[in-house]
Amino acid sequence: MKISLIQKRKLKKFKSDKLREECGVFGISNHEDASAMVALGLHALQHRGQEGCGIVSYDGSSYHSEKRQGLVGDHFTDTEVLKKLPGSFAIGHNRYSTTGETSMRNIQPFFADLHLGGLALAHNGNLTNALILREMLVKDGAIFRTTSDTETIVQLIAKSKRIKFIDKLIDALFQIQGGYSLVMMTNKKLVGVRDSFGIRPLVIGKLKNSFILASETCALDIIGAKFIREVENGEIVVIEEEKMISVKPFPKVKQRPCIFEYIYFARPDSLINKKCAYEYRKSLGFYLAEETDLDADLVVPVPDSGVPAALGYAAKSKKKFELGLIRNHYVGRTFIEPTQNIRSLGVKLKLSSTKTLVKNKSIILIDDSLVRGTTCHKIVKMLFESGAKEVHVRIACPEIKYPDFYGVDMPTKEELLAHKKNNAEMCKHINATSLKFLSLNGLYNALIGEKRNQSYPQFSDHYFTGDYPIEPADKLNGLKFKQLSLLSGKSNN
């Protein structure tokens, strides 16, 4: 049976204690089945957002828009839906909300009728000065229909007095701050933008005469497109009449991509800087073993994200690798509505132990990260209840002590386990035999073969260091999340 939206919301309490990337974006030009290609691309990017999805197409005279709550495969595999999206240009979006409530009105791509024609826009990331800009625009007469920071970009483009679209866009980009990648569609152009530090990802692909813009290369693979390159930090790419031009309006700075794309966010088969994400994660486990190895019987990953690091750990330490935990991949889609009687089951809805493997064993438990510690505590307890003698937790990244403001859904600083507790206290909190993290320099060595540049870090690693490449202006001005609209978030528009 299919699960209702209300049920899905209730099931959120059973989700693993993980960081969540905000969104996935995809766009294609000059293809007779553009909307179907976008649907396939969004399917490959489903891990980047599961709350809502949408596609906007252009047929040469009119724009067509279809948006749905839930998963791509539940809606855009229907040929009748795709028939409503004719045209050779299309863009799409998967949403996971970090700014603005979950409702139909916040599902992207957004569309607006501007003086120069139509504009469709899909955005991955967060603007760090969105509240400041929104207040300014509202005072100036702007009418907002959503509570998403993405609409701020649309409003700024519409407000610009410049003549050409590219100039209007540059006007808007010089006013916004944050980590973002944008895919836009006008009457004649497909446009991609990446923030000045390249925090949020965006890649370029080619399929015969069609150009593709996507969050990750896995979205190119599914349609048989060739990976061309990453959009550079601070770059605007404009695709028109089978040609692509590059515009770089920002002052040049060295890129600082989000380090969690390497650790967790990107799909394992996606290319990042010429290597699959899987290879980086295996290397993290290798360095983790080099720094924190101990005598134990088994190396066990927390599935699925902990598997590559566990394989690297086992290879380096020459210890036996076993799937001591099995994940149920169907929970959240077909499970019954949780009742009060079963809410205590918690993590057991998603994970179970292979009891005969872990019984009487000393286990090294590998995971990619530790956020609140709630899920890790339950997993450790499950392993001990299954007969494990010892459970040594090893984390394939440093301690997460600081929140993100660039498009990652994460707890406040006060909710982060490593912010408020030292290592001994964290170990006691999760009831593990021992707890160790990969060092910061170990992380950098695993990813790029060199130590962290203290004067100018090679990544956006603020999760561990508090070193933010872009200051969160809204937070600095004391603007906390507030009611941005009087219209209820439960309203279906």
Characterise the protein shown here.
The chain is of the alpha+beta class. It folds into two domains: 249 residues, Aminohydrolase, N-terminal nucleophile (Ntn) domain (Glutamine Phosphoribosylpyrophosphate, subunit 1, domain 1, 4-Layer Sandwich); 193 residues, Rossmann fold, CATH 3.40.50. 27% of the residues lie in helices and 24% in strands. The chain contains 17 helices and 24 strands. The strands form six sheets. It has a seven-stranded antiparallel beta sheet with strand order 4-3-5-2-11-10-12. A hairpin with a 4-residue loop joins strand 8 and strand 9. Helix 9 packs across helix 10 and helix 9 packs across helix 15. The longest helix is centred in the middle third of the chain and has 16 residues. The N terminus is likely disordered.
In brief, what are we looking at here?
The protein is of the alpha+beta class and 493 residues long. The protein is 27% helix and 24% strand.
Topology at a glance:
Blueprint: H1 5-11, E1 20-21, E2 23-28, H2 34-44, E3 52-58, E4 63-69, H3 79-83, E5 89-95, E6 110-114, E7 117-127, H4 130-139, H5 150-159, H6 165-173, E8 178-185, E9 190-194, E10 203-207, E11 210-214, H7 218-221, E12 226-230, E13 236-240, E14 243-247, H8 260-265, E15 271-272, E16 275-276, H9 277-292, E17 298-301, H10 307-317, E18 320-321, E19 325-327, E20 351-353, H11 355-358, E21 362-367, H12 374-385, E22 390-395, E23 408-409, H13 417-420, H14 423-430, E24 434-437, H15 440-448, H16 462-465, H17 473-476
Helix pairs in contact: 5-6, 9-10, 9-15
